[in-house]
Amino acid sequence: MANIDELVRDKLSKDGQVLNLKAQFLREVGVKELVKNEGLKNVRAMDLSQNHIGDDGVKAIAESDVLGNLRNLNLASNSISDIGATYLATSKKLLKLRSLQLVINDISEEGEKVLRNSTDLKSLSLLKFRV
């Protein structure tokens, strides 16, 4: 895994609103470091697909103080279970999130239901579980 600050510098759009870290081998440890990066305060779209961040990585995202402006989040293929879905559904930080992609994860119908019925993710209008 490359240095997180270097990755952010390399992969963040010039306007600071889009971060594409697809398949960067971040795993849970890298995401926990990433979500502390103050340079992400203006990020509106983030692709973290194919990083195997797991439920603990999702928890770090859901609790991050710097991702409050995030509107689009791709977490496809990240070994996320119903536990991770619950972390997202109960997040008090991702209040502007509109689009969430969770394809190729381990989320059951119960986890899908928890997300669809979330009272915290009120802005969420696109929730994708299937390819």
Describe this structure in words.
The chain is α/β, with parallel strands linked by helices and 131 residues long. The protein has one domain: Alpha-Beta Horseshoe (Leucine-rich repeat, LRR (right-handed beta-alpha superhelix)), CATH 3.80.10.10. Helix content is 31%, strand content 11%. It has five helices and five strands. The chain has helices spanning 4-11, 27-34, 54-62, 82-89, 109-116, and strands at residues 18-20, 45-47, 72-74, 99-101, 126-128. The relative contact order is 0.15. The model has no long low-confidence stretch (mean pLDDT 95).
Q: Return Rg in Å.
A: 13 Å
As a percent range, the share of helical residues equals 25-40%
Looking at the overall shape, the CATH architecture is Alpha-Beta Horseshoe
Secondary-structure element order, as H and E? HEHEHEHEHE
Instruction: Fill in the CATH topology.
Output: Leucine-rich repeat, LRR (right-handed beta-alpha superhelix)
List keywords for this structure.
single chain, 131 residues, alpha/beta, Leucine-rich repeat, LRR (right-handed beta-alpha superhelix), 5-stranded parallel sheet, 5 helices, 5 strands
Give a brief rundown of this model.
The chain is an alpha/beta fold and 131 residues long.
Please render the helix and strand layout as text.
Elements: H1 4-11, E1 18-20, H2 27-34, E2 45-47, H3 54-62, E3 72-74, H4 82-89, E4 99-101, H5 109-116, E5 126-128
Helix pairs in contact: 2-3, 3-4, 4-5
